[in-house]
Amino acid sequence: MSVIQRDRASLWHPYAPASGTLPLWEVEDADGVTLRLRDETGQRHEVLDAMSSWWSVIHGYRNPVLDAAAKRQLATFSHVMFGGLTHEPAVELAERLVAMAPSAADRPRLERVFLADSGSVSVEVALKLAVQFQTASGFPKRQRFLSIRGGYHGDTFAAMGVCDPVDGMHSAFPGLLGANVFAARPPAAGAPPEEIAEWQAHTEALAQEHANELAAIIVEPVLQGAGGMFVYAAACLRILRDIADRHGILLVLDEIATGFGRTGELFAAQHAGVVPDIMCVGKALTGGYLTLAAMLCTGEVAARVSSGGAGALLHGPTFMGNPLACSVANASLGILDGGGWRSDVARIGSGLAAGLEAANAFDAVKDVRTIGAVGVIELNTEVDVAAVTSAAVGHGVWVRPFRTLVYAMPPYISTAEEIRRIAEGMVAAVAEVHGP
After folding, report:
1. DSSP codes joined into one string, 234-273
2. Whose CB among 51, 57, 150, 363 lies 3.0–4.6 Å from 185's, allowing a Cys bridge?
3. Which residues carry a binding-site annotation for pyridoxal 5'-phosphate?
4. Is the pLDDT of residue 170 over 90?
5. Residues catalogued as catalytic
């Protein structure tokens, strides 16, 4: 039996039926920006990975710096429990994250780091922390969260509860999700001031109405990822910071998809000059090598919770602070410290903008947009995921469309020629399946 046949007999893939009706490709090799695949007929394909393996492999596959970091750590120890023990890779990672986090002279710094297994888990920890903070501050009834429509924060239960409750992926679980408060989706980037003012009035009224029961505001800054690759006005983030301050509510920013340069700033919050009270990071943290995430918070938040009734943050993953993951993360952040990511992201952004522009002429296309190293073709109808994916492979590009979107978030090492080919393949696949 082939690997794909064996897969279909026992595995269950994300956002897919167990029956395995969607197309499947076996990865035989990966290097740089290239995936070498084998399809169900045994035919081989060499494709450019426009997805960075769900936005994480920013430095490419088999990166020599990250490979070397993993090998060095394997030579000593790959894992130890983090309860009562510590190790240099985790300490270094915390120091790096604190040093690079958004900051401002008039705001408390993000200076305490809690390491988690995945992005969803880091969101769970952030929400727990916010509730514990409010309880320790004398507001035990503040157990709910304010978010915005179109948001996505993960697939675990508390995280699902702050995702879009109507258009999100979790409407199948209405009786199990927290009853949180949702403002309208913010106006798009470039929206006129009066539209932003109208949204501000609506959101402020909502926060005022529920202030006594809200622990925090949680949003993805500037770019909503799995909720629609939607870019909203940075001014709205400043509005949310002000609302949080006026009502004693914490501001939680989910930078899991946007962090580490993807939007053109190291963190998307920096487009608005905003510093959160709590921030979640993940995905690109290890350059896509190992699962790892982190929650950062201010010293004030950490001290308040630590002195509260529980005396501790009530969470502790088994693989928290995994040394192997931390070592690779340090190497990944070390590459970013060189600063070359800015020119990389600019090159990718300009290449995607130029290459995807042709799709604007298609009747099936509603919008083409870019931000940083993100390029999006939005259709008027649902994408035929299986057909577009297969068509893109035929044009030498790996994409994973969803809803109405065919999009790219390529590795930062992608050359101008590779970006041209990615954009060309995306446009060709859309034309082939949905018509020019």
Report:
1. THHHHHHHHHHHHHT-EEEEE-TTTTTTTTSSSSGGGGTT
2. 150
3. 119-120, 254, 317-318
4. no
5. 15, 152, 254, 283
